[in-house]
């Protein structure tokens, strides 16, 4: 058993055992409260640059399989668990998580008091941290942590985005074609759209409005992704162009923040963010509550009580997080655009919000039918 | 959506007596519901026949009716109270069935009562298994193939279609009553006929077997704007085929990927919506094929259930409380999660710990009962434990059960081979985890054990891990802090470590070393959200982790030790006393700290005490809690005398460890518990007890018997609930007893008492403060001494005792309390034989009858006991109004109503291996799981109510079958004659008939069972008989002469008719029948009764 150490930028130190790849890593320490779906979490590009602490004590029980990846690889900067499984036990499992982490170079630590770490991050906020299983001297690691870049101002989408455009065909007959701006897209998203007869043209994060509209898509989709929206002006500009074109638009997570900025709204960093599969969100239009999958460290700043005027018409807050009243969704009243901060594609997480993809389809339908395209 | 405005008065139906499959969890749910509804400003009426519940405390509802839970009586309550709504989803299957009954007989309509929670259609859709399956398929989900059958023939035909083995499930029963697997036609015939009888609607479901699949449960909640949340997922370690109630279960689910879990969640939500439970909680069970993930829905309970109580304790999300709020119109997002105080209830709890539940069985009570675990629930209780990983939670749960063994390696190994152990694992029985560990140790692989047991390989691997850690402990050159910490993180107790390291001079040695090395647990908090938000409620569990979360406090704390898992002999009654202690100590200005491991109870509701520690009640675990609380603030002491024998057994060791033990001292406790010491006490007090002696060999025992004379009562020392007690009439039987009474040794001698025949047994509960005695109540047993006090019916005030007797009893009780040195409650059992008072035993603690006495006399004995424990006197308490200013239980007003307690027995749940019923005869060994109370002006009516509550009404006409032991014949003549005069037809066996005829009772002779066709057993099963009176022949133990009786009694049980096994019981029944014929049993609320009792007396 190899010793490992985790050091937070404020100096708090945890000692445990090496997990996954033996090595050293730094990133932003965050915690995720989901009790299932570690494979999806590890391969979710939105976690790029982050050292993810799983609050669920047992991780790896169902091993890994060829079906549940949300992208081509694992993106987390580091992985923190309390009790790693010693063997995979699931009929779909093709291997153990430990080996997979090692193979993909994910440095982790196990056996620490993950609840103590979580409480610390809850009180002090997400912060830079480092894990090392080669040099367990706290001082040395702390220096590296303090030298590292923070998440604020980090522009990470280009690092996780596809280099080349690609197409995900519709299942069955193609009813709509859309351009998706890949800021860190998860495979579950095009999958959901495809099932609704949507062909998705995925473009790199740096695609311009012109690129997005080039193929004359029925709509444009903005994906989730890592980093600080304030650092992604290129995407904000692109979205501005799409809005000018009046093309139906749907954004999730990072995409919600980008839309917000394109509308002139601000974004800010949450103390410790929302990362879990149990977040209650109120749909203010229908008045219903959905249990949703979250993974965001930043949020849009908009008044909850009234619509806000923007160059693209009025926007209202369509969804609110009931735990802390954070803006969880935007809806333009005068243009065919809407977005949510949570993950309707879930994976991992409950499927309560999946109907939002249908809503996007309906929106494209009504615009095509010459409707005024009110989202 | 705000609260509904159309409801002002709600009637809540409880679940009645504690039964297997329907236990204390419904007191927990019901109590929460009543409190919530009242807090919302509604008037709450309550019906529940179980006096041992907190929910029937007069201050929980506005009007509390301790009346039989039958549609007739509930209708009377409705007629009197005129509620506008009925909440029946919190009282288990019993309440649900009554609601259906009241709906079908038009009562609800007649009185304009609305069902809230789930409406009748939803209930039927959920409960009718076939209708339910159709719904499951209609939403595109899968369920085992099956058909509802109304006849044995139909069942056989269905079995041919779906193929053997098949599962038989009677419709509308709870806890899997009457269900099981049939592997062939013969078996199916027998089970189907039993099942048809067990089902109130006389149908059974014959279903495709998915034996060996993984079993899961989801607890869901839905509000009236259709928001649905999943509160908890539960995974069974025991695969499909073992009832969830009998399975070791784990929360959250451990071996599902997100895809599989979300699919289960989607199906669960769709089912809930399709069934249409409009608001509240529901429980859905699933099976998953481990080979390919195929998911099938097994069943749904459209109500709060055993599992939802478990889920509430496991997650901190109070399902019943929220369900009650939803029922009156709130939506989930309008309700705050009171653990965080800031977030709404419309979320799904996230756990950062593991919860393990282990059932507790009582097979030793029912010789001959089939110990195999099947689809019929057989466990009588359960424990829950939490840890930061599965091994830690498992270890804590295993030692919480308080069985002989307390975790791996604490019991002897029978040295079986891996092959033998693997073979043993194929048949589910209690304690399989031990077998699995032994098999691994004997060289079996994880795969082999998983295959043989049906446990998921992940669980088996975790057991293997514990085994490896055990080996490290055993083989480590020295027990370093590192080794110990690793052992502790994997749930090993000091006792287990001691078992692995004999040189450490036992558990105490290990603890001392551990403390010296600074290896101590920390205490984490159950917060519903995996630490995402701060928790306000101090609901803790221990873990060998790094950071502790116990907050400092100012007020002095008192720790109350609970009673652990429910079991026969130690049940909800003790939890009642603990909860009352909590309230009383809070009133007295202390912080009440509860320690318990039973998830069914009110005491483990985080709302009950100021702080809750969900911990095993072992010396090690309790001591660590004390330590944690000492660092948090001043600790006044620990109360060990309210939770039954469990905490009582810890008193001395706690004191020796320097923990202040409040109330009666450990030394005093020993004076009452230790035979020798107690004899001296009796001698000093000048009190008589049956002649007795203690023997460690048969020779000694025979010598004692010869001296004191037969019959004698033999039993092992130090037992609760009369375990292993027998009445012995001769040397032969005595020898047989000693032979089979295992571990008889100087350390564990056998007690031999003169058995007092035909003696009246009297139970007394009293308070003593060192100066004054407050005698709470005197209960006169209906059955003679020789029937365990827990199993015999009793009446308060006593019906035949004169004031002279009462004064004698009072004096004797005072002497005992004084000589023993009681500070708090004492319970004494006396036998009055030929006007001479004998002391059978004295228990220096709260007894099983405390709640009954408190409700019958309107005096809260347990509260008073708690206050005495912290130094107050009876005089103080009289002054403070906790006790009446004058008088006590011996001088109740003339017009005081009569309260009758009747025991409820679980015989019908057990069958022998070959499928026959188990004998129902009562003995000195307690067998009942619960009790009911009948309260009325006269004894007859009160007794009739108690019978109606326990077994269904006594017949007021028809046929009585009588078969009596010789010694009972004379005494029985009069009551039988009375029945004949009332117009009953009398059937009797020859000997009995002869005596009856001579006394002018004409009766028809029927043959004994042994006499073949047309015999009494056939007549009973044919439904020709309405009530059976059969007193056991010959002596217990040697079965042959009693076989007839056995067949008669079991027949009565399967025919579902009253079966009376004592003459006294019969006399009481006759009075009850007369009262019923006079008609009109009224209902009266406990509040009215108490007001009358407490009214100042002239
Ligand atoms: N088709 C089946 N095949 C195998 N085992 C079953 C089947 N249906 C139920 N069981 C087992 O029987 C137990 C009791 O069945 P259930 O439908 O839950 O009845 P209850 O109302 O008593 O809970 C379940 O917990 C499960 O272990
Ligand atoms: N000497 C005796 N004569 C007659 N009956 C007895 C005698 N001793 C005990 N019993 C019967 O056995 C029952 C159980 O005995 P008890 O001493 O109360 O054990 P427990 O600790 O289980 O309550 C009593 O309730 C009483 O009915
Ligand atoms: Mg069930
Ligand atoms: Mg007793």
Describe the protein in words:
- The complex is a heterodimer of chains A (375) and B (1098).
- With 375 residues, chain A is of the alpha/beta class.
- Helices cover 23% and strands 33% of the residues of chain A.
- In chain A, helix 1 links the parallel strand 3 (24-32) and strand 4.
- Chain A has helices spanning 38-42, 97-103, 114-124, 138-147, 157-160, 188-195, 209-214, 233-244, 254-262, 355-368; strands at 3-8, 13-20, 24-32, 50-54, 58-59, 78-81, 83-84, 107-110, 127-132, 166-168, 176-181, 198-203, 219-222, 249-252, 266-283, 288-301, 308-310, 313-321, 327-332, 337-340.
- In chain A, the strands form 3 sheets. In chain A, strands 10, 11, 12, 13, 14, 15, 16, 17, 18, 19 and 20 form an 11-stranded mixed sheet that branches.
- In chain A, helix 8 packs across helix 9.
- With 1098 residues, chain B is an alpha/beta fold.
- At the A-B interface, helix 3, strand 15 and strand 16 of A face helix 9 and helix 16 of B.
- One adenosine-5'-diphosphate (ADP) binds next to strand 27, strand 31 and strand 32 of chain B.
């Amino acid at each position: 058993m190899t010793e490992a150490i985790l050091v937070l930028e404020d100096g708090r130190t945890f000692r445990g055992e090496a997990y996954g790849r033996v090595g050293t890593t730094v990133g932003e320490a965050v915690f995720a409260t989901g009790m299932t779906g570690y494979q999806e979490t590890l391969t979710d590009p939105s976690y790029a640059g982050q050292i993810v602490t799983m609050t669920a004590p047992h991780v790896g029980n169902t091993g890994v399989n060829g079906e549940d990846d949300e992208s081509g690889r694992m993106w987390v900067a580091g992985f923190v668990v309390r009790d790693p499984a010693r063997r995979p036990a699931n009929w779909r499992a093709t291997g153990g998580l430990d080996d997979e982490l090692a193979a993909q170079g994910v440095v982790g630590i196990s056996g620490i008091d993950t609840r103590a770490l979580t409480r610390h991050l809850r009180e002090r906020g997400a912060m830079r941290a480092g894990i090392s299983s080669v040099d367990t001297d706290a001082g040395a690691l702390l220096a590296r942590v303090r030298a590292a870049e923070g998440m604020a101002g980090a522009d990470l989408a280009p690092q996780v985005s596809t280099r080349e455009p690609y197409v995900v065909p519709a299942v069955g007959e193609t009813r709509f074609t859309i351009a998706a701006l890949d800021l860190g897209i998860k495979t579950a998203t095009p999958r959901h759209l495809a099932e609704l007869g949507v062909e998705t043209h995925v473009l790199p994060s740096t695609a311009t409005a012109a690129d997005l509209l080039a193929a004359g898509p029925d709509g444009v989709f903005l994906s989730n992704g890592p980093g600080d929206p304030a650092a992604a002006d290129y995407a904000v500009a692109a979205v501005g162009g799409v809005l000018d074109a009046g093309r139906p638009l749907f954004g999730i997570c990072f995409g919600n923040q980008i839309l917000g900025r394109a509308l002139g709204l601000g974004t800010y960093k949450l103390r410790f963010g929302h990362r879990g599969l149990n977040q209650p969100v109120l749909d203010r239009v229908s008045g219903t509550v959905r249990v949703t999958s979250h993974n965001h460290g930043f949020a849009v700043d908009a008044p909850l009580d009234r619509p806000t005027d923007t160059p693209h018409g009025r926007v209202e807050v369509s969804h609110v997080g009931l735990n802390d009243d954070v803006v969880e969704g935007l809806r333009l009243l005068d243009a065919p655009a809407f977005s949510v901060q949570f993950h309707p594609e879930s994976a991992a997480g409950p499927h309560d919000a999946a109907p939002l993809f249908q809503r996007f389809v309906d929106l494209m339908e009504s615009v095509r039918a010459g409707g005024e395209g009110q989202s | 959506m705000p609260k509904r405005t159309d409801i002002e008065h709600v009637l809540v139906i409880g679940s009645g007596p504690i039964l297997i499959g329907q236990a204390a969890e419904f007191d927990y749910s019901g109590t929460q519901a009543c409190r919530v509804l009242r807090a919302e400003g509604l008037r709450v009426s309550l019906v529940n026949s179980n006096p041992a519940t907190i929910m029937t405390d007069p201050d929980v509802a506005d009007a509390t009716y301790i009346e039989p839970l039958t549609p007739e009586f509930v209708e009377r309550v409705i007629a009197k109270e005129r509620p506008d709504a009925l909440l029946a989803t919190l009282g288990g299957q019993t309440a649900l069935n009554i609601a259906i009954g009241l709906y079908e007989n038009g009562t609800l309509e007649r009185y304009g009562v609305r069902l809230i929670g789930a409406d009748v259609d939803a209930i039927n859709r959920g409960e009718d298994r076939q209708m339910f399956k159709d719904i499951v398929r209609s939403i595109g989900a899968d369920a085992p193939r099956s058909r509802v059958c109304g006849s044995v023939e139909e069942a056989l035909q269905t079995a041919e279609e779906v193929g053997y083995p098949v599962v038989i499930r009677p419709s509308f029963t709870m806890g899997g009553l009457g269900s099981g697997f049939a592997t062939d036609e013969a078996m199916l015939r027998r089970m189907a006929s039993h099942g048809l009888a067990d089902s109130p609607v006389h149908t059974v479901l014959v279903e495709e077997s998915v034996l060996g699949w993984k079993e899961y449960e989801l607890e869901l909640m839905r509000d009236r704007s259709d928001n649905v949340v999943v509160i908890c997922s539960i995974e069974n370690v025991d695969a499909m085929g073992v009832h969830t109630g009998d399975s070791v279960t784990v929360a959250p689910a451990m071996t599902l990927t997100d895809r599989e879990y979300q699919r289960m969640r989607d199906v669960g939500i769709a089912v809930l919506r399709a069934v249409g439970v409009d608001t509240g909680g529901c429980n859905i069970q699933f099976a998953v094929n481990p080979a390919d993930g195929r998911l099938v829905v097994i069943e749904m309970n459209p109500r709060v259930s055993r599992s939802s109580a478990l889920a509430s304790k496991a997650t901190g999300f109070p399902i019943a409380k929220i369900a009650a709020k939803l029922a009156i119109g709130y939506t989930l997002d309008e309700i705050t999660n009171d653990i965080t105080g800031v977030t709404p209830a419309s979320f799904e709890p996230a756990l950062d710990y593991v919860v393990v539940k282990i059932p507790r069985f009582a097979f030793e009570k029912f010789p001959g009962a089939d110990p195999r675990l099947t689809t019929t629930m057989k466990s009588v209780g359960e424990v829950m434990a939490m840890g930061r990983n599965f091994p830690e939670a498992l270890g804590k749960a295993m030692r919480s059960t308080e069985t002989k063994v307390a975790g791996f390696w604490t019991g002897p190994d029978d040295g079986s081979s891996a092959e033998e152990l693997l073979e043993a694992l194929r048949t589910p029985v209690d304690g399989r985890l031990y077998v699995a560990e032994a098999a691994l140790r004997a060289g079996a692989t994880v795969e082999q054990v998983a295959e043989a047991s049906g446990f998921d390989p992940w669980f088996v691997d975790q057991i293997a891990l514990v085994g490896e850690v055990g080996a490290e402990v055993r083989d480590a050159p020295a027990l370093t802090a590192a080794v110990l910490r690793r052992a502790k993180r994997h749930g090993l107790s000091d006792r287990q470590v001691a078992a692995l390291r004999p040189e450490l001079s036992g558990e105490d040695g290990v603890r001392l070393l551990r403390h010296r090395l600074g290896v101590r647990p920390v205490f984490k908090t159950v917060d519903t959200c995996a630490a995402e938000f701060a928790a306000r409620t101090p609901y803790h569990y221990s873990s060998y982790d790094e950071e502790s979360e116990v907050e400092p406090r100012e007020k002095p704390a008192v720790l109350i030790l609970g009673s652990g898992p429910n079991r026969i002999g130690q049940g909800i009654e003790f939890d009642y006393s603990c909860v009352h202690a909590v309230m009383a100590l809070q009133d007295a200005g202390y912080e009440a700290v509860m320690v318990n491991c039973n998830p069914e109870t009110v005491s483990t509701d985080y709302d009950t005490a100021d702080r809750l520690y969900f911990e095993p009640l072992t010396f090690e675990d309790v001591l660590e809690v004390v330590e944690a609380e000492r660092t948090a603030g001043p600790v006044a002491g620990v109360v060990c005398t309210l939770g039954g024998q469990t905490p009582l057994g810890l008193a001395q060791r706690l004191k020796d460890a320097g923990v202040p033990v409040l109330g009666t001292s450990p030394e005093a406790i020993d004076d009452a518990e230790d035979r020798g010491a107690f004899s001296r006490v009796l001698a000093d007090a000048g009190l008589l007890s049956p002649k007795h002696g203690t023997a460690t060999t048969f020779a000694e025992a025979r010598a004692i018997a010869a001296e004191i004379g037969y019959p004698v009562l033999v039993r092992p020392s130090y037992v609760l609930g009369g375990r292993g007690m027998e009445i012995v009439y001769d040397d032969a039987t005595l020898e047989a007893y000693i032979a089979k009474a295992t571990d008889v040794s100087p350390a564990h001698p056998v007690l031999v008492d003169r058995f007092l025949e035909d003696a009246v047994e009297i139970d007394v509960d009293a308070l003593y403060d060192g100066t004054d005695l407050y005698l709470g109540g005197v209960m006169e047993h209906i059955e003679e001494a020789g029937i365990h006090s827990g199993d015999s019916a009793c009446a308060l005030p006593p019906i035949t005792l004169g004031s002279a007797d009462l004064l004698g009893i009072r004096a004797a009780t005072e002497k005992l309390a004084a000589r023993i040195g009681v500070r708090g409650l004492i319970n004494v059992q006396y036998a009055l034989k030929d006007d001479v008072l004998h002391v059978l035993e004295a228990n220096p603690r709260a007894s099983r009858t405390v709640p009954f006495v408190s409700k019958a006399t309107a005096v809260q004995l347990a509260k008073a006991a708690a206050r005495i424990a912290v130094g107050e006197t009876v005089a103080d308490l009289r002054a403070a109004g906790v006790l009446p200013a004058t008088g006590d239980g011996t001088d109740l007003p003339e017009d005081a109503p009569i309260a009758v307690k009747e025991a409820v027995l679980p015989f019908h749940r057990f069958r022998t291996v070959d499928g026959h019923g188990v004998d129902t005869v009562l003995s000195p060994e307690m067998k009942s799981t619960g009790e009911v109370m009948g309260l009325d002006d006269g004894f007859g009516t009160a007794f009739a109510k108690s019978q109606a509550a326990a077994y269904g009404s006594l017949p007021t006409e028809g046929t009585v079958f009588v078969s009596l032991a010789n010694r009972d014949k004379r005494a029985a003549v009069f009551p039988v004659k009375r029945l004949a005069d009332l117009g009953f037809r009398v059937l009797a066996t020859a000997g009995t008939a002869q005596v009856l005829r001579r006394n002018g009772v004409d009766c028809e002779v029927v043959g004994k069972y042994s006499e073949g066709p047309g015999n009494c057993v056939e007549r009973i099963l044919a439904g020709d008989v309405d009530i059976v009176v059969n007193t056991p022949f010959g002596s217990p133990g040697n079965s042959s002469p009693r076989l007839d009786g056995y067949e008669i009694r079991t027949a009565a049980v399967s025919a579902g008719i009253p079966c009376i096994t004592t003459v006294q019981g019969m006399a009481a029944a006759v009075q009850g029948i007369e009262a019923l014929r006079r008609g009109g049993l009224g209902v009266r609320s406990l509040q009215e009764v108490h007001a009358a009792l407490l009214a100042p007396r002239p």
